[in-house]
Write a structure and sequence with these properties.
single chain; 197 residues; mainly beta; 10 strands
Length: 197
């Protein structure tokens, strides 16, 4: 009987300590619960579209403007240049690095590398003068002219870079999609004012 009483007292002691120990264990927050102090990096390819442009060319023997010229981007497609560190600035890319100053607000620096290629064989109106000693010399007064390879090929593909700073707000909207474990997947809504260029 004496041993039964000691055994029962021992079990009660262990049971009570186990319950109080479980109450003291704090449930760890999810990694995604707080953002302050986190750094983020993003990098990827892009596609661009351009509105019609007026492009002016000035030099010693020419000063003319193309009116309402169309242009397009120059995507690389699926290529190893996107992952080769020595060539990753050749394709159209975006790079951003940022820091969360609070759980919802971040500051970032972004570089967008784009490509602008004037569409060949289009007809545009040209205004100005050309005196280079070629068959295209003359005075143009809103003159429709075909942009052949002999007249003009224009690409701005190595240096059309925008460097931006941004201040953004990020809101976790995962609960709207009934996502419980945001450590595995999280959906955020982000907003920022127009970047400073």
């Amino acid at each position: 009987m004496k041993y039964t009483f000691l055994y029962a007292a021992f079990l009660a002691f262990v049971f009570i300590n186990t319950i109080s120990a479980q109450e003291e264990i704090k449930i760890q927050d999810k990694y995604t619960a707080h953002n302050k102090g986190k750094i983020f990096i993003s990098w990827g390819g892009n596609r661009e579209s351009y509105s019609k442009s007026d492009i002016t060319f000035k030099g010693k023997d020419y000063n003319f403007t193309l009116h309402n010229a169309t242009a397009h981007d120059k995507p690389k497609g699926w290529h190893t240049d996107y992952i080769n560190p020595t060539r990753m600035t050749i394709p159209q890319t975006n790079f951003r690095i940022g820091y969360f100053i609070s759980d919802q607000y971040s500051v970032a620096i972004r570089v967008d590398h784009m490509k602008y290629v004037m569409t060949q064989d289009q007809t545009v109106n040209v205004t100005g003068t050309i005196a280079t000693g070629s068959e295209f010399d003359g005075t143009y007064n809103n003159t429709p002219t075909v942009m052949t390879n002999q007249f003009l090929m224009y690409e701005h593909t190595d240096g059309l870079n925008y460097i931006n700073t941004e201040f953004s707000r990020h809101d976790d909207i995962s609960s709207l999609f009934k996502i419980g474990n945001t450590d595995k997947i999280q959906i955020n809504l982000g907003s920022s004012p127009k970047p400073v260029e």
